[in-house]
Design a protein that fits this description.
With 356 residues, the protein is α/β, with parallel strands linked by helices. Helix content is 46%, strand content 10%. Bound molecules: guanosine-5'-triphosphate and magnesium ion.
C-alpha cells in the first residue's frame, strides 16, 4: 500500500537516498526511495502484521480471555445465554453494538442449538469485521505540482502533534523536504514540543509566539513551503471540540488562508482520534469530520488500547478511511492502516487453540 501518490517528476536528492539507506529505509535498484518501504513496512507484510499484533496486544487479550471463557464449558450449546455472553465479550473490544449484533446473529443462524464450535464463531467474527472494514486503499492525496499541504486536527490530547512528527519522519526518510507549521499557539509548550520533534527528525518549522493567530502561522508555513520548494507542509492545530464554535471557525480561517495560496490545499485534513478512548472518542469527535471537512483518520495510541475494535465504528461513524494508526510514542511508530493485516493480528492467537 503506497503511503503517498508522489509527483512523477520527483527525483530524490542523492544525499537523502544515502541518509535513508543509512537509516535503514530500503532503497530500490533505481536509486529512489520507495514511499511505502519506510520503517513500518520495511519487512513487508510480515513485519506490518507483527507491528499490528504488538499494537493490538491488549485488545487481543480481552478478546481471547473473554471469548475463551465461553468455550470452557464442554458441550455448551449455542443458546440465548451463550449469545448474550458472546455479545458482551465483543462489545468490550469497542467494535460497536452493530458489528457485535451482526456477529451474534450470524453465529445464531449457523449454529443454533448446536454444540458451540469455536472455529465457526471465529469465522463469523472474521467475516463480519472484514466486510465492515472494507475500505479501498487510501493513500494520502498529493499536490500535482508544488507542496502538498496536510492539516491535522482533533480533540485535546488525541495525539495530533506526535502523529505529525511520525508522519513527517516518514516523509523525511523518503527523501522529502518537510516544513511544519506550529499552529497550536494556545500553549507555549505545544510549540516547543513540535520544535523538538522537528529538529530530531530533520524537518523545518515555522513558529510564532504563544497567543499568535494560528491562521497567520499556517499562512507563513505554506509561504515557506512555496518559496523554499518544500515537498510537504504539515500544520498542527490546538485541540478543540466540535461544539466550540469559535475554535471551529478558527479552523475555517486556517483553511481559507491556506487555500488563498494554493487553491486546492489543504490536500488532506487528517482527524486524529485516540484509540484508548474507545467509543468515547467517537462521541467526542462526532460532527467534527463534516465541520472540518476531514479527509481521513489517524487512529493514535492503538498500542495502549484494549479497545482496538474501535477501528470498525470509526470508519463507519466518520465515513472516512483510517489512513494511519499510531503504535507507540516513537517517531517510527506509525503504520499505514491495512484492514487485512489488522484483522489477522486481532484474531491471530486464535482463542480456539488452547483453552486457558
Ligand atoms: N502509546 C502511544 N502514545 C501516544 C501515541 N500518540 C501519541 N501518544 C502520546 O499521547 C500524548 C498526547 O499526544 P500529543 O501528540 O501531544 O497530543 P495532541 O493531540 O497534540 O495534544 P494537544 O495538543 O494537547 O491537544 C503524548 O504523551 C504522546 O506521547 C501512540 O500512538 N501511542
Ligand atoms: Mg498538540
Amino acid at each position: 500500500m503506497a503511503l503517498f501518490r508522489f509527483r512523477g517528476s520527483d527525483k530524490p536528492d542523492p544525499s537523502k537516498v544515502d541518509e535513508a539507506a543509512k537509516s535503514g529505509a530500503p532503497v530500490d535498484s533505481t536509486g529512489s526511495v520507495s514511499p511505502e518501504a519506510t520503517a513500518d513496512e520495511a519487512g513487508g507484510a510480515g513485519r506490518l502484521f507483527d507491528r499490528f499484533r504488538a499494537g493490538l496486544k491488549k485488545t487481543v487479550q480481552v478478546l481471547n480471555t473473554d471469548v475463551r471463557d465461553l468455550f470452557k464449558q464442554e458441550g455448551r450449546l449455542v443458546d440465548e445465554s451463550f449469545l448474550n455472553d458472546l455479545r458482551r465479550a465483543l462489545v468490550r473490544t469497542d467494535m460497536g453494538p452493530t458489528a457485535a449484533e451482526e456477529i451474534v446473529k450470524d453465529v445464531y443462524a449457523k449454529q443454533r442449538a448446536r454444540v458451540v464450535d469455536p472455529e465457526s464463531v471465529l469465522d463469523s467474527i472474521r467475516g463480519t469485521l472484514s466486510q465492515r472494514l472494507d475500505q479501498t486503499d487510501a493513500p494520502l492525496a498529493a499536490a500535482a505540482t508544488g507542496p502538498t499541504v496536510i492539516l491535522v486536527t482533533g480533540v485535546n490530547g488525541s495525539g495530533k502533534t506526535t502523529s505529525i512528527a511520525k508522519l513527517a519522519n516518514r516523509f523525511v526518510k523518503d527523501g522529502k523536504r518537510v516544513v511544519l507549521g506550529a499552529g497550536d499557539t494556545f500553549r507555549a509548550a505545544a510549540v516547543e514540543q513540535l520544535s523538538m520533534w522537528a529538529s530530531r527528525i530533520g524537518a523545518e518549522i515555522v513558529r510564532s509566539d504563544q497567543g499568535a493567530d494560528p491562521a497567520s502561522v499556517a499562512h507563513r508555513a505554506v509561504a515557506r513551503a512555496l518559496e523554499g520548494d518544500f515537498d510537504i507542509c504539515i500544520i498542527d492545530t490546538a485541540g478543540r471540540l466540535q461544539t466550540q464554535s469559535n475554535l471551529m471557525q478558527e479552523l475555517g480561517k486556517i483553511r481559507r488562508v491556506i487555500a488563498k495560496q494554493i487553491p486546492e490545499a489543504p490536500h488532506e485534513v487528517l482527524l486524529v482520534i485516540d484509540a484508548t478512548a474507545g467509543q468515547n472518542a467517537l462521541s467526542q469527535a462526532k460532527g467534527f469530520s463534516e465541520a472540518a471537512s476531514c479527509t481521513g483518520v489517524v487512529l493514535a495510541k492503538l498500542d495502549g488500547s484494549a479497545r482496538g475494535g474501535v477501528v470498525v465504528p470509526v470508519t463507519e461513524t466518520f465515513k472516512l478511511p483510517v489512513k494511519f494508526v499510531g503504535l507507540g510514542e516513537k517517531a517510527d511508530d506509525l503504520a499505514v492502516f491495512d484492514p487485512k493485516r489488522y484483522l489477522e493480528a486481532l484474531l491471530a492467537d486464535s482463542f480456539c487453540d488452547s483453552p486457558a
